């Protein structure tokens, strides 16, 4: 057998010089793979074609073969002593810009070329930014040899880097594809864990897998595609399945595998199993009055929302008898918040609308005694609470809500300042006398998930802590809060058992994807259980993510972080992209997000993420700056921070800075351009251009304005609604500004982009508008998400890297 020249497998790269045709001199070789001519039962196939030995090239050979490749740099293609054999020669092409090239393979008689695993028809390469794997699969014949010469031609060869090895760029493919953790749940007895994974394949197909593992050993007990959850006791899980008799409910014992049929005809509605496992609490829907689909009345702003007229009531389904008893009845919906551990009491929530004053929705909490069918009010007509659960003994309620909840008992602000309605606090309510105790009044992080442990009577919760989701433990006896150290920036989900000292949790960091852990609640030590994306990302080269803060002119410490390109050279000059929050939450350290920061950095950008005034997670006072400012202060923080960052980091090209944001961040993109000329390009996704039109037209326009414009209305504060709307300052904008918008956006209607785009067009300014068909506030369709993201990349490449080729390929000029 003939073998190629062998060398050590290492990154071997050459940067193509301008104007040259470059020979690919070193390739990775694997092979040979002997193949045989099939038995000829007939002389022709079903399409009347005779056998051609070249068809052996269609024999599948895994390009992810486990054989270790060797390096080849000869002029004669390796052959084989076998009659026929297949061989693979490969190399990589890395490009941080959109590129085109011609691939030339000379000397080989029978071969196919594959680019990233797909067969190339012809020899033209169109390469979006990534590390591309090029594979030449050829057929050898015993006693014959072919010469081999591989080269690339390109109009912009300086943009391409040829190499071998496995290291590669981080791209949108890595964001969209692979396995992620969606939830984790530990059994009530603490012995087993259910972890839900979702796997997305190229093309957008996805699947869910539910894995049960042994907490002590970490061994996998079983996996299923059934959506399973724990029963309230022990270590049995349940699932439902549609049968000939109706919707059946099954419970399975993990240890023995025994399956029990609990009910065969439960309603096809959402339910919760009672803690004593004797009944289901069903949430039943009552369809509201219908209108003619052609000409119809809208009775209040929310009536535009599908399903708003429907109401939800509670019913008890007895598992022993199959009898379903209604529990609540009325005009307003009633939802279940919790069930007491003995199954005898319900904590329910009901809300009513009041449009004439803020807050426009009032919420009440009641305890229902199922034995007597009586209700006791716990909270009445509070417009600022968001959630509630029982204490383990059901004598108290742990509630969450804004600082204005319970007449402001948790408020910690200067006089005259309005708190942010989305800055969440924890409160403890004594049911007997309805006394409310604020638990986090002096605590800056913004409350997220919370669980009252039955095992140690502690309250465990996660909270936005600046740009992280941190884990905490609160002692309800004395109010002490302890931060639990964990090895991830973002704790995304937690679960606690009724017995034992193990918590299950999962999270991710700024530079790594989801990981699964168990935590000992005595020692507060975490142990890694699973890292499902480890193998997928093992060859990815990431740049550094570093923290950076500055002192603003107002004396505030403004937090931020920045991402550097891989193989960063401080002596070079880099364009920069600035990103900031949308809504009210800080731009968290998510590895995969709407704007995956490492993917931007991989294209050669410094990415600066800033957390300006108004973001939650920094305390009540900081969050309150979002209220009644309409961007004032926020924009100043971003402008000052960008300038100061550049002053401290001379490798940033100050002439090539871009900015991007969505929703409120999209508004901020537009607003910034009316205040500064430091940006060379800007992108507004689903941004608000006119506070007055958004206030009236968005599904949640006026209700979000209760947060951002508390007690201010277009007719009372035109200085906020008009003077600080970008539309009314359009003539001040000179930055090239791209508008992106889903054309079915119900949160921020697409007209917000249309009217601002129209204004800039009439002013003769550089602008573009790309609508995404049939998409709402978020772009979730697989194929549209890719083109949406590539549109962003192409716009920034055009204006920040002086490379319009990608943009022109996606959106060629039209003579209209």
Automatic annotation (TrEMBL):
<dbReference type="GO" id="GO:0006508">
    <property type="term" value="P:proteolysis"/>
</dbReference>
<dbReference type="InterPro" id="IPR001375">
    <property type="entry name" value="Peptidase_S9_cat"/>
</dbReference>
<dbReference type="GO" id="GO:0004252">
    <property type="term" value="F:serine-type endopeptidase activity"/>
</dbReference>
<dbReference type="InterPro" id="IPR011042">
    <property type="entry name" value="6-blade_b-propeller_TolB-like"/>
</dbReference>
<keyword id="KW-0378">Hydrolase</keyword>
<dbReference type="Pfam" id="PF00326">
    <property type="entry name" value="Peptidase_S9"/>
</dbReference>
<dbReference type="InterPro" id="IPR029058">
    <property type="entry name" value="AB_hydrolase_fold"/>
</dbReference>
<protein>
    <submittedName>
        <fullName>S9 family peptidase</fullName>
    </submittedName>
</protein>
<feature type="signal peptide">
    <location>
        <begin position="1"/>
        <end position="19"/>
    </location>
</feature>
<keyword id="KW-0732">Signal</keyword>
<feature type="domain" description="Peptidase S9 prolyl oligopeptidase catalytic">
    <location>
        <begin position="600"/>
        <end position="802"/>
    </location>
</feature>
């Amino acid at each position: 057998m003939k073998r190629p020249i062998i060398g050590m497998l290492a990154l071997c790269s050459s940067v193509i010089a301008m104007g040259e045709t470059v020979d690919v001199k070193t390739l990775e070789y694997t092979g040979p793979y002997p193949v045989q001519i099939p038995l000829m039962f007939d002389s022709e196939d079903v399409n009347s074609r005779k056998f051609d030995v070249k068809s052996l090239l269609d024999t599948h050979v895994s390009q992810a073969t486990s054989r270790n490749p060797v390096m080849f740099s000869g002029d004669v293609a390796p052959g084989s002593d076998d009659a026929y054999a297949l061989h693979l020669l490969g190399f990589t092409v890395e490009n941080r810009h959109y590129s085109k090239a011609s691939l030339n393979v000379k000397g080989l008689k029978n071969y196919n070329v594959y680019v990233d695993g797909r067969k190339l028809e012809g020899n033209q390469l169109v390469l979006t930014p990534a590390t591309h794997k090029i594979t030449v699969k050829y057929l050898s014949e015993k006693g014959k040899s072919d010469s081999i010469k591989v080269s690339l031609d390109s109009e912009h060869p300086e943009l391409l880097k040829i190499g071998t090895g496995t290291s590669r760029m981080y791209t949108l493919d890595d964001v969209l594809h692979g396995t992620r953790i969606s939830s984790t749940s530990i059994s009530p007895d603490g012995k087993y864990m259910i972890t839900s994974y979702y796997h997305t394949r190229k093309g957008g197909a996805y699947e869910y897998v539910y894995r049960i593992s042994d907490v002590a050993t970490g061994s996998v007990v079983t996996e299923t595609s059934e959506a399973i959850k724990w029963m309230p006791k022990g270590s049995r899980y349940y699932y439902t399945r549609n049968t000939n008799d109706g919707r059946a409910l099954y419970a399975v014992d993990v240890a023995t595998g025994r399956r029990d049929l609990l009910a065969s005809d439960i309603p096809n509605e959402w339910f919760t199993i009672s803690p004593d496992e004797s009944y289901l609490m069903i949430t039943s829907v009552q369809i509201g009055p219908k209108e003619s689909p052609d000409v119809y009345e809208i009775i209040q702003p929310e009536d535009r929302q599908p399903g708003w007229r429907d109401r939800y009531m509670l019913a008890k389904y007895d598992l022993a008898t199959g009898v379903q008893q209604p529990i609540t009845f009325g005009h307003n919906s009633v939802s279940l918040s919790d069930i007491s551990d003995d199954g005898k009491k319900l904590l329910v929530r009901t809300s009513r609308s009041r449009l004439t004053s803020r807050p426009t929705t009032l919420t009440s909490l009641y305890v229902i005694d199922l034995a007597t069918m009586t209700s006791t009010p716990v909270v009445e007509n509070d417009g600022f609470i968001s959630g509630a659960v029982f204490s383990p003994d059901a004598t108290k309620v742990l509630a969450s809500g804004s600082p204005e909840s319970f007449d402001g008992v948790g408020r910690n602000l200067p006089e005259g300042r309005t708190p942010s309605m989305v800055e969440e606090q924890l409160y403890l309510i004594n049911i007997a006398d309805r006394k409310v105790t604020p638990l986090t009044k002096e605590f800056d992080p913004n409350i997220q998930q919370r669980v009252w442990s039955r095992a140690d009577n502690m309250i465990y919760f996660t909270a936005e802590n600046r740009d992280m989701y941190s884990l905490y433990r609160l002692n309800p006896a004395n109010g002490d809060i302890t931060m639990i150290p964990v090895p991830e920036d973002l704790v995304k989900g937690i679960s606690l058992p009724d017995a034992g000292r193990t918590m299950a949790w999962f999270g991710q960091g700024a530079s790594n994807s989801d990981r699964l852990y168990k935590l000992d609640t005595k020692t507060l030590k975490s142990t890694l259980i699973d890292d499902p994306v480890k193998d997928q990302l093992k060859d990815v080269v990431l740049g550094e993510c570093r923290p950076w803060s500055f002192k603003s002119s107002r004396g505030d410490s403004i937090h931020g972080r920045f991402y550097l390109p891989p193989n960063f050279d401080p002596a070079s000059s880099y364009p920069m992209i600035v990103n900031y929050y949308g809504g009210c939450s800080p731009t968290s350290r998510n590895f995969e997000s709407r704007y995956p920061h490492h993917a931007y950095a991989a294209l050669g950008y410094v990415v600066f993420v800033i957390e300006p005034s108004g973001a939650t997670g920094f305390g009540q006072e900081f969050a309150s700056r979002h209220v009644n400012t309409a961007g004032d202060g926020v924009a100043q923080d971003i402008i000052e921070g960008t300038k100061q960052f550049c002053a401290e980091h001379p490798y940033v090209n100050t002439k090539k800075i871009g900015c991007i944001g969505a929703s409120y961040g999209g508004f901020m993109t537009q607003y910034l351009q009316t205040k500064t000329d430091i940006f060379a390009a800007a992108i507004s996704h689903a941004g608000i251009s006119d506070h007055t039109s958004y206030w009236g037209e968005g599904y949640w326009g006026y209700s979000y304005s209760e947060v951002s414009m508390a007690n201010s209305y277009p007719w009372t504060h035109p200085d906020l609604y008009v003077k600080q709307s970008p539309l009314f300052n359009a003539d001040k904008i000179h930055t090239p500004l791209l508008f992106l918008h889903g054309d079915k956006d119900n949160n921020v209607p697409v007209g917000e982009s249309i009217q601002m785009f129209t204004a800039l067009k009439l002013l003769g300014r550089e602008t573009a508008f790309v609508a995404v068909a049939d998409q709402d506030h978020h772009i979730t369709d697989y194929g549209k998400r890719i083109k949406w993201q590539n549109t962003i990349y192409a716009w920034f490449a055009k204006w920040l890297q002086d490379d319009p080729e990608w943009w022109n390929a996606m959106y060629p000029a039209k003579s209209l």
